[in-house]
Amino acid sequence: MPTRGSEDWWKDYLTHGHRLEGVARWLFPRLPASPRCKVCSAPFRGFGRLLRPFGWSPSSKNPNICGFCSNRLPAGGAEVPVAVFVADVRDYSGLSARTPPLELAATMSGFFDLVTRVLLDHDALIDKYMGDGLQALFLEGVAGRGYNEKALAAAQAAQRSLAQSHPALRDLPVGIAVHSGVAFVGNVGAVGMVDLTAMGDVVNVANRLQGQAGGGEIILGGAYLESSPPQGFERASFELKGQPEPVPAYILKCGQ
C-alpha cells in the first residue's frame, strides 16, 4: 500500500480513482445548483446544503473544493497522462468595450455555465476560471481510459452547444484547444491554501494553442497526433512562444 501523499499514492489515485468519488461524480452532477466542488462535483447550493454536515461544503483551504475532498487529498502529486482543455473568448477586450457591463456579465455567466455543464457531463475536472476563459483536466482516474476521447467530445459539444444557444452566446467567438501528454497533477499551493491543478509543458502548450484558435474553432495537439485526424480536422502547425520548433496540431476550422 503506497504511503498516503507519496508520488505512488497520487499516481494510483489519478489513474485509478476512488470508488466513493466515482459514485459521487455519477450522482452529484445530476443534482441541480452551482457552484460545485471541482473534484467530486458536489453542489454547494440547493440540495447541496443537505450534504454540508457530511463534509461536502466549500473548504476553508479552497472554496472551489469541498471539505471532504480537500481533507482527503494530501499535498503532493505525480506525473500522469492528462488531456488539458482550454476555452477562451476571442477579443474579450473589444467585447468589453462595446457591451454594457450588466449585459457583459450576463453573457459571460452564460458562457461559463454552458461550458462547465458540458465539461462535467464528460467527466472533466474544472481546473480554473481565467477571466474570459476556463481550463479543465481529463484524467483516467476520473474520466476512465477514454479520457482523451471525452476531452475531444467535450470540445465538440461545447462549440455545438454555443452555436445552438441564444443569440448572445451564439455570437460569442470562443476558441478551444485540447492538448494531451504527461503533466504534474496534484495538490499544490501555499501553506493552508492548496489547489488541485496541473503543471508542466503540456499545460503551457495547451494555453498557447488555445490562443491560436479562432471563434468556433478547435485545435488538438499532443497524443491526438498519434492517430489520423478526427473527421473535419486538418493538419496544421503553429509557432508558439517558448517552443523551439513549430508545434504540429489538428484544427477544425469555422464552418466545418
Please characterize this protein's 3D structure.
The N and C termini lie far apart (50 Å). Helix 5 (101-121) packs antiparallel against helix 7. The mean pLDDT is 86. Helix content is 34%, strand content 25%. Strands 1, 2, 3, 4, 5, 6, 7 and 8 form an eight-stranded mixed beta sheet that branches. The chain has helices at residues 7-16, 19-27, 67-72, 92-98, 101-121, 140-143, 147-163, 167-170, 201-210, and strands spanning 76-89, 125-129, 133-138, 174-190, 193-199, 218-222, 234-238, 247-252. With 256 residues, the protein is α+β, with helices and mostly antiparallel strands.
Helix content: 25-40%
Q: What is the residue-mean pLDDT, rounded to a whole number?
A: 86
Oligomer: single chain
Instruction: Indicate the structural class.
Output: alpha+beta
Return residue spans where pLDDT drops below 50 for at least 5 consecutive residues: none
Number of helices: 9
Question: What is the structure about, briefly put?
Answer:
With 256 residues, this protein is α+β, with helices and mostly antiparallel strands. Helix content is 34%, strand content 25%.
Topology:
Elements: H1 7-16, H2 19-27, H3 67-72, E1 76-89, H4 92-98, H5 101-121, E2 125-129, E3 133-138, H6 140-143, H7 147-163, H8 167-170, E4 174-190, E5 193-199, H9 201-210, E6 218-222, E7 234-238, E8 247-252
Parallel strand pairs: 4-6
Antiparallel strand pairs: 1-3, 1-4, 2-3, 4-5, 6-8, 7-8
Helix pairs in contact: 5-7
Main attributes?
256 residues; alpha+beta; 8-stranded mixed sheet; 9 helices; 34% helix; globular
